[in-house]
Write a structure and sequence with these properties.
Number of helices of chain A: 7
Domain Transcription regulator PadR N-terminal (chains A, B): 12-86
Number of strands of chain A: 3
Number of domains of chain A: 2
Radius of gyration of chain A: 22 Å
Oligomer: homodimer
Domain Transcription regulator PadR C-terminal (chains A, B): 98-179
Strand order of the largest sheet of chain A: 1-2
Protein name (chains A, B): PadR family transcriptional regulator
Strand content of chain A: 5-15%
Order of helices and strands of chain A: HHHEEHEHHH
Helix content of chain A: 55-70%
Pfam family, one (chains A, B): PadR
Chain lengths: 193, 193
DNA sequence: TCACGCATGTAAGATGTTACATGATTAA
DNA sequence: TTAATCATGTAACATCTTACATGCGTGA
């Protein structure tokens, strides 16, 4: 019973709850819509999907040679799978693992010229600006889909979270640049290497 | 040459660049000051520290029975270690791995009663409020230390980032609650289980 | 004496990524 | 015909967490 692939299992279940899908399309969804808070690789997806079937949480309709490519495998969620998913959804979420390499580098900033940090912050700002734009793009898309009676309100909420967080990151980086360039430079000079 | 323990190696180097330390104190620092953007476990720390010594990036002064406990091992960074650290600091940071379980659950929200989501968001808000408070506490502490000529400006910057991000998270969650309770409830009702 | 904090360490397992292999279809 | 995209999969490796074992010092 302790043989699951951690949370990936529930990610797959949640994706299949939307509609029957292939591992490939699940990957695409996660890349596009989820990248700002979750990521999965094929090396996780395909084995997990097989496990779901083995556990009776999904069924695979092997459409060999039907569609395109080498014969795609469409997975659908079962009732047991839906039950498993909603049980998990009820549990209080706790995993919040973030690893921001840039913050690590900033925090070790006294070991490097401030100009290097300013450079890192510049690309960080650009990256976050792009992400905010992307997220707003998704929100617009979801709004349009809603006009066609396709409801994506929950995905829209996560995109909104992206807007909030990426904007905050950008604002922080701008402020950090200001603080570093105002007083960080002479700091390093007086110390030398 | 591909035998490093990933980024943990540089985290250790950065910690030792501040002052000679034991693995235990490094863990404490990371838990307190870094938890919002990085985490390391003893299972990573101790082996990594040994590797640093093997690679000549640090030296261990084995103060057996000197301090308290079973005999602590104090590690210090070498010149080669400092060089390695600053080389790494120069490289553009890219790792940004975040896994927010709560966003996953929100995005699968249509499979559960909205009340469950509202509950998750409530504890999320409380958690972020506490974190903002903690971060502000650190900033105050760092300011006081600066009056005593102990410079923590770079750590202060990362704490500031915490303030920005956690505030954004809290604000988003408040907004999300509003959106869900305004229209999410009847949505689920019309669908049934 | 007993619990707790300090302190180090390892083994096992869980988790995750990367690189590779395969091969069909589609569009240029 | 060639490249890209669709599509599945595995093996090797890298990484990370968890649980455990050890044991001293300090204060209640």
């Amino acid at each position: 019973m302790k043989e699951n692939t951690g949370i990936s299992k529930y990610v797959m279940l949640g994706m299949l709850a939307r509609m029957p899908q292939t591992g490939y399309t699940i990957k695409k969804w996660i890349e596009n819509e989820y990248s700002h808070f979750w990521q999965e690789s094929f090396g996780q997806i395909y084995p997990t999907l097989k496990k779901l079937v083995a556990e009776g949480l999904a069924v695979s309709s092997d459409n060999t040679q039907s569609g395109n490519g080498r014969g795609q495998i469409v997975y659908s969620i079962t009732d047991t799978g839906r039950k498993e998913l909603s049980d998990w959804l009820r549990k209080e979420p706790k995993i919040e693992k973030l690893r921001y390499e840039i913050l690590l580098k900033i925090s070790f900033g006294e070991n490097i010229e401030p100009e290097v940090l300013l450079g890192h912050l510049d690309s960080f700002i650009r990256r976050n600006e792009k992400l905010v734009k992307d997220m707003n793009g998704y929100i617009e898309l979801f709004k349009k889909l809603k006009e066609q009676d396709i409801d994506c309100s929950y995905s829209q909420l996560t995109a909104l979270c992206g807007v909030y967080v990426y904007s905050a990151m950008r604002d922080w980086a701008i402020e950090a640049k200001k603080i570093i360039s105002e007083k960080g430079v002479d700091d390093h000079e007086t110390k030398g290497s």
